[in-house]
Amino acid sequence: MHKMAGEVLKNARVLPLIPQWPVISDILDTAISKMALGTVPVKEGLDDAARKVRKLVLTWPACPPPGGQAALPWRPGRPSQPDSNPVP
């Protein structure tokens, strides 16, 4: 059983360990639904979602300005640390 779990975990991926992820996920879900239903053209849906995510990330208090990734309380490959900014 443990051997099988280890094999599965070799290729496992986790959700991004950033406090904004639940909001980003909602933005992407909404955009994908609109595009799948055909209520918005794909390019327009993707551009709108990218604009919303970019604005969110740049204005979220825990995020540094562009290029300042080292200031984040986490880094890829390291576990997430507790964040004082709850998801709105």
TrEMBL record:
Superkingdom assignment: Bacteria
Name of the protein: Uncharacterized protein
Region feature Disordered, mapped onto this chain: 64-88
Phylogenetic placement of the source organism: Bacteria, Pseudomonadati, Pseudomonadota, Betaproteobacteria, Burkholderiales
